[in-house]
Amino acid sequence: MKKIIESIKEQNRQMEEAEAAAINAEIDNPATDNSRRNFLKKAAFGGIAIGGLMSLKIEDTVAQTTSKVSRASSPSDLKITDMRLAMIASKPIIRIDTNQGIYGLGEVRDGADGRYALFLKSRILGLNPCNVEMLFRIIRQFGYHGRQGGGVCAVEMALWDLCGKAYNVPAWQLLGGRFRDKIRLYADTPGARDPQTFAVTMKRRVDEQGFTWLKMDLGIHVVANIPDAIVNSKFWDGATGQYDLRDYMGYGNTLHPFTQVQITEKGLAGLAEYVESVRNAVGYEMPLCSDHFGHFDLNNSIRFAEAMEKYRLAWVEDMVPWFYTDQWKLVTDAIKTPTCTGEDIYLLKNGFRPLLDARAVDIIQPDLGTAGGLLETKKIGDYAEECGVAMALHMAGSPVCFMANVHCAAATQNFLALEHHSVDTPWWINLVKMTGSKPMIENGFAIVPLDAPGLGIELNEEECKKRLGKEGGYFEPTPEWDQKRSHDRLWS
Which residues pair with 86 in a beta bridge? Predict the structure, then answer.
């Protein structure tokens, strides 16, 4: 044992000598700025000297020589120096830089504008990124429901990535630890018009891709070509297909109770045929949830859910707008299929809590890119658990947002499944490199990083640059967002 200890000591002595030489060379380099030089001087004194090991007990010597002491950062001296953005695969990815060379990655939610995040740069410059909750409270007022929460959440995401790297621990550890080592995924599958073709696609999700939970679009668009399947759809341009959200008085911007679109018995029969073909393909062991029904009122929502009852859907999602708490409770109490909503809700207090307190839904489904980021989403899940409500996670972003969800799901007990929205995009997973020893996804499950700090990823620069949008380059400087130009306090 003593020979082993002596060998370990000698190896560490050689490593420390080489490290000290490299540090001194950088300190002596005239090109090294003062903040970096001060950090390096502190890092040089960060460990126990080899001579000090001689006086330690064998147990303490083993602990010291085999510990993975991070020398990449001095967390208490970290300061945010920059925020930059790149449009990668149509997703706004932000990078928050620091005075110590480490950085954090975040993502503005799908369909949102990257400027929601850049607007916040002037509020956090010069602050310590490890004070995540304090920084979140500074910027929280600038988020809102839907895509308007995307900027705040992207920053919060990047802060946890930074904090994890600074302390050399995974993000889930900073959230209080993990409940699971792998995260169950559900495969989102956009709908086809032909039931048999769609059933083949869904079966491939199970047999070839290993998923144990499926999701399907199940809206009035499926039966749009069947005569007399829908009432009042022709009045609304886009009621059975694509619509333009710039048309404020159009179908896409008209809330469900105000369209008077209805489904006939013939339409319900067509939708039932669609679901039955999927059930025949994948069986009943497989949880199968549904989404994108259309803009119709709670009466038609109840009729729809009753018609689907025999197929035992895992949930019906967003049948009425999330803020109609009373209507959600009416639907939930009237049907036997679980109800689910939440992807457009920002924060617990004025968003999810009314639904949960009223027991208005059976399952909540936050989108971490809107809900408030990792910690707020965990708080939402914890509160839902106290109310006896399970939590799924909605996600339609890049691997950056995906991995943020993985860490949150690992740290939240009442979690069910996380959405994988890019199953059929082969290059999607190649946008990042895992920094730990495990793959990102394996047989329909995401693998929780156990040996990688922060979110556990770095961007694959070569692949990302292939997917750059026309909006700008690859993390170009953003000095126009440096200056704060408003008084933000909400009270006097």
Answer: 93
Q: Domain 182-459: what homologous superfamily? A: Enolase-like C-terminal domain (3.20.20.120)
- To the question of domain 78-168+473-481 being in CATH 3.30.390.10, the answer is yes
Residues in the chain: 492
E strand map for 307-426: 316-317, 339-341, 363-364, 390-393, 415-420
Distance, in Å, from the CA atom of 481 to the CA atom of 477, rounded to the nearest integer, reads 10
Q: What are the domain boundaries of the chain? A: 2-69, 78-168+473-481, 182-459
**CA–CA dist 111, 92 (Å, integer):** 9
- Give kind and range of the element (H or E) at residue 44: helix 34-44
Tokens of 45: 């004194």
Give residues with Cβ within 8 angstroms of 9, minimum separation 6: 50, 53, 61, 65
Nearest-10 crossing angle of helices 374-386, 399-410: 40
Helix ranges (DSSP H) in 283-373: 298-308, 325-334, 353-357, 368-371
Which residue, 417, 402, 355, is CA-closest to 383? 355
Whose tokens are 């410059």? That residue is 125
The DSSP string of 77-95 is G--EEEEEEEEETTEEEEE
- Lowest-confidence region among 18-27, 90-99, 107-116, 184-193: 18-27
User: Please, what is the Cα angle at 331 between 329 and 335, to 5 degrees?
Assistant: 120
Distance CA 72, CA 49 (A): 18
Q: Please report, as a single letter, which amino acid is at residue 183.
A: I
Sign of the CA dihedral with 440 first, then 441, 445, and 447 last: negative
**Structure pTM?**
0.86
- Give the amino acid at 437: S
Contact 141, 488 (CB under 8 A): yes
> Residue 456: which pLDDT band, with cuts at 50, 70 and 90?
very high
pLDDT of residue 472: 75
367 has which bridge partners?
394
CA dist 238 and 250 (Å) reads 8
